[in-house]
Amino acid sequence: MKAAVVTGGGSGIGKRTVERLLEEGWTVWSLDVCDPIIAEPAEALSAGSRFRFHHCDVGDSDSVEAAFTAIKSVTRKIDALVCSAGVARVGLLEEISPDQVDLMMDVNLKGPWLSIRGALSLLRHGSSVSDPARVVIVGSIGGIRPKMGNGFYSATKAAVHALTGVLAVELASSGIVVNAVAPGTVDTPMMSSLLQGSTPPSYRSSGESPLGRIAQPDDIADVILFYLSDAAKYVNGTVLPVDGGTRAAFIKR
């Protein structure tokens, strides 16, 4: 039975990834700062002890260490780590506050690094270059095509894309491959809160893709599960846009 840890597993892309992995028979540890709203779906899937939740702030080193210490008390090995935790604070660069920048840097950039560092012994155990453990980081199209009004979020995602490549090379010899998905606009609670809140006029959602809709969490989870599959065991260091073609050419709106 395969096992995975998913950060940000309580909501949005992370939550749907947890559900999909449970459906496929994985054991999943969900790490989140929020209560595990996945609990009822997990029961419906008869996941039982295959679903476990730990409260974890991925931007806090002590919190990450405590979560992985708890996981290591149960198992010596995991097959995958999905780093999905993320936050967005929007506004012009001259207007956004240092506290907002610190939050995004801690969660979006430091968070995946701390989580991967905490998981390394679990990922390395029993893995090999022919049968590697997997790390998937949720980046953003914003890290490829930065957007006015969302500058620091885009900067943190561009930085985590860079870390993906470096980690992929540094960890390859120990049997770990590292890749990233770069979603466009996704129908998640985070996006809903941005659109329904007091969003600065400088920020505009990318909206529908050329395919005529925004992404659903399943669209991103599909690609994450591909990265975790045998079909992707030789795929390493990639950042794959999952945006329906939004970044392919400028669309005047």
From TrEMBL:
One GO MF term attached to the UniProt entry: oxidoreductase activity
Keyword field contains DNA-binding: no
Lineage of the species this protein comes from: Bacteria, Pseudomonadati, Pseudomonadota, Betaproteobacteria, Burkholderiales
Record Pfam families: adh_short_C2 (PF13561)
Swiss-Prot/TrEMBL keywords: Oxidoreductase
InterPro entries (UniProt xref): NAD(P)-bd_dom_sf, Sc_DH/Rdtase_CS, SDR_fam
Record protein name field: SDR family oxidoreductase
Family per record: Belongs to the short-chain dehydrogenases/reductases (SDR) family.
Catalytic activity, EC: 1.-.-.-
Organism name: Achromobacter veterisilvae
